[in-house]
Amino acid sequence: QFGITFSYPQDWELNPDSQNFQQGDVISVWIWGETQIEGTEFHDGAYFTVGRPVETELSLTDWLETDFLNESNTSVLEQEPDIREDVTLAGHNAAEVYLCGLGCFTYRFTKIDNQIYGIILFAEGPNKTTYLAQIEQILSSLKISP
Question: pTM of the predicted model, to two decimals?
Answer without folding.
Answer: 0.89
